[in-house]
Design goal:
By secondary structure, this protein is of the alpha/beta class. About 60% of the residues lie in helices and about 10% in strands.
Length: about 700
């Protein structure tokens, strides 16, 4: 079953439509349609597989790409590196792999973590222990140095490239290593994984009809915290999430937290696959309870979310795909696992072939259908919609310019045909003066708008930072009561901790609130500038105001993913310094609160940094698109100016007072030919405009 068939067809049709428009375009519109074609060619479906260790991610992904043992799935310890399978990407090798290693600076950040957290914790809160992450990463470093020896330093910042993937190669880069198993100590297992920053695998698979990056992530219950941020970065870049659950423990609290986090992404598709049902006893009854429980808890966790829930067995999928299994062996699996009963109870097609029946029961066909739907109706559909919107903007602009040029040429034909040479030359002089003034005014509006937008974005960035700082200050102030209770001995040791979750919620709320304000302010600036620009442009190019708008800009909402630490900050009271050691120590409340503020600020810094980064990136994308609409007005005027002034100068020269009658007739005939060219362009534009209005772009 192919993935992304309809999306592939729509992309091909849109590419043909853009090519046709480019063929009849002139000036800046050629580059505008080229830019849309480049966007089209660079689009990739991004799918991230995520779930707990031993949920069967690697086995499922192997089956999804048509392999039985491509990704290491039976290795213990488990996969530790985010692995990107780059399938059918233009410009990529047809096969092979590239493994990028951390450089010294990035490795230092991993090993030492956030120095501000450690320094603040050591200085202000002696009882706070932030060393777990450091210990883990230091352990990874020592292990890497031990395994790699002298090669360790030489490899930092470098990469390994392979034209072919040999058996066991991936295990050297993406698996944790032999662990405590002495039998594997001399193997290549996990030799480079501790320093591998990214694993990129190049694949050419016909079943994927659109370019796809399929990302395998470390397990979310992996005890090595250093991998959390790498996984979150992969999630930020992905549009579709394939969440793997184990039927034995289908929805743990970790899974619920993960799904809730993914549900906050907004506009992204989540497919939940309950794997390993082949291992369930009394499968029919248990599976009904599992599906009901998972559906309820997922809906409770994300009430407004939209999810696809599928159950099956990656083991069945691999058995059905493996040609080493005979038909009799497949029948035996079907009989022992009561696969036919399962298919009948779930309304699956009753195939004649045993392999087909086992494959259907595995859930893999349902996953492929869900992925295709998510690509075509979700991220891929949204992308093509944005291409359609921007293409329509250029079409409308080109139509406005062409119609304006036609009207202008017809006016000149009427004047030139009259034979009044002096009047013709005066008309040409006036028009050239008017066009130059219009161009100057448009340029001034665009320059002023760019300055206003840059200032507005900076102001909103400052406001977001200020509001986050204020939330942190308010949160710390709210802890003063706990500190005071510790001081007077009325609080228990359990009360001597701070739960950061309420602060995270407050920061996220401020983040979304500030973005809504920023979006409205920037939109108002863009709308006002567009109105001013179209008013000026209409002096020379009529109808522009009806052709270019600020509708359907990207970035209506913003989302960000980050790892949520369950760690609670411990409060230790800091005593006032005194040389009189025999006196009872007093608590320095001010220093204790200041220390608490510093540690809390540093602890949430990674999350706030990602929020600010997402805030600015999404806002910049919207502003960039808005500026593009405004620049379209400038393109119309500039192209109109350049084309018309060039022709007016030619006409002015030909229409000299002593020019013979045939010179004037030559100008008129040439102008009539120009009208025919413009009329043909307008006919093509009308056809393509109608094609874009078709949801499937079938007429393109």
């Amino acid at each position: 079953m192919a993935i992304g068939i309809e999306q592939s067809k729509r992309i091909a049709e849109m590419r043909a439509l853009l090519s046709s428009l480019r063929d009849v375009s002139t000036g800046e519109f050629v580059s505008a349609f080229d830019a849309q074609a480049e966007r089209l060619d660079s689009w990739v479906a991004r799918i991230a597989a995520i779930g707990q260790v031993k949920a069967g991610k690697s086995s499922t992904l192997n089956a999804l790409i048509g392999e039985t043992d491509f990704l290491p799935s039976d290795v213990n310890p488990w996969t530790t590196v985010v692995t990107n399978m780059r399938i059918n990407l233009p410009g990529d090798p047809k096969m092979g792999a590239r493994f990028d290693f951390f450089d010294e600076a990035s490795w230092d950040r991993i090993i030492n973590g956030d120095r501000r957290v450690r320094k603040a914790a050591k200085t202000y809160l002696p009882g706070f222990d932030p060393e777990l992450l450091r210990e883990q990463t230091e352990e990874m470093r020592v292990y890497a140095e031990k395994r790699l020896g002298p090669s360790y330093v030489k490899l930092l910042g470098k990469h390994h490239q392979y034209d072919l993937l040999s058996e066991g190669l991936l295990e050297s880069y993406v698996c944790a290593g032999p662990g405590t198993d002495p039998r594997l100590e001399d193997s290549a297992l996990g030799r480079y994984s501790s320093i591998t920053k990214a694993a990129n695998i190049y694949l050419d698979i016909d079943e994927f009809r659109v370019p796809t990056i399929l990302t395998d992530t470390p397990g979310v219950n992996d005890p090595f915290l250093v991998r959390d941020e790498f996984t979150c970065q992969a999630l930020d870049r992905s549009d579709i999430f394939l969440v793997m659950l184990s039927a034995h423990q289908a929805l743990t609290e970790v899974d619920v937290a993960l799904i809730r986090m993914l549900g906050m992404q907004g506009g992204k598709d989540i497919i939940i696959y309950i794997n390993r049902i082949d291992e369930l006893e009394d499968r029919s009854a248990r599976l009904d309870r599992i599906m009901t429980d998972v559906t309820k808890r997922v809906n409770d966790a994300v009430p407004d979310g939209s999810f696809t829930i599928i159950c099956g067995s990656a083991l069945w999928a691999q058995a059905a795909m493996d040609e080493l299994y005979t038909e009799d062996e497949i029948r035996e699996i079907i009989k022992e696992d009561r696969v036919d009963e399962f298919n009948a109870s779930h309304g699956l097609e009753a195939f004649e072939s045993p392999r087909s029946r086992l494959y259907a029961a595995s859930g893999l066909p349902a996953i492929k259908r869900a992925l295709s739907d998510a690509i075509e109706k979700g991220s891929g559909g949204s992308f093509l919609d944005s291409i359609t919107v921007e293409t329509n903007v250029q079409i409308n602009a080109m139509k406005a310019l062409s119609q304006s040029q036609r009207n202008d040429i017809q006016d000149r034909i009427d004047v030139y045909a009259s034979g009044r040479i002096a009047e013709c030359r005066e008309t040409i002089e006036d028009e050239m003066t008017m066009l130059a003034a219009t161009h100057t005014s448009i340029s001034e509006i665009i320059d002023a708008t760019n300055g206003n937008l840059d200032k507005a974005m900076n102001d909103q960035w400052v406001a977001l930072q200020r509001e986050m700082d204020q939330h942190i200050a308010n949160f710390i102030q709210a802890q003063k009561k706990t500190v005071t209770h510790l001081w007077d001995g009325s609080a228990s040791s359990e009360d001597a901790q701070i739960d950061l979750l309420p602060l995270r919620i407050a920061l996220e709320s401020a983040f979304h609130y500030r973005y809504e304000i920023a979006r409205k302010q920037l939109d108002a600036t863009l709308e006002a500038s567009l109105k001013n620009a179209t008013n000026v442009a209409n002096r020379s190019t009529r109808g522009v105001d009806a052709q270019v708008s600020m509708d359907n800009l990207p970035g209506n909402s913003v989302a960000v993913t980050f790892a949520t630490s369950n760690k609670k900050l411990r409060i230790d009271l800091i005593a006032k310094r005194s040389w009189a050691f025999w006196k009872q120590k007093d608590v320095d409340l001010e220093k204790t609160m200041d220390g608490l503020r510093r540690v809390t600020s540093a602890e949430v810094f990674p999350a706030t940094s990602k929020m600010v980064e997402a805030f600015m990136a999404t806002m910049s994308e919207r502003v960039f698109a808005g500026k593009g609409r405004l620049d379209t007005i400038g393109q119309i005027v500039e192209q109109s100016l350049n084309d018309r002034i060039r022709r007016l100068r030619e006409d002015y020269k030909l229409l000299s007072p002593d020019a013979p009658p045939e010179a004037r007739e030559k100008v008129v005939n040439r102008l009539r030919n120009d009208i025919e060219i413009i009329d043909n362009r307008l006919r093509v534009i009308a056809t393509k405009e109608s094609a874009l209005a078709d949801p499937d772009v079938k007429a393109a």
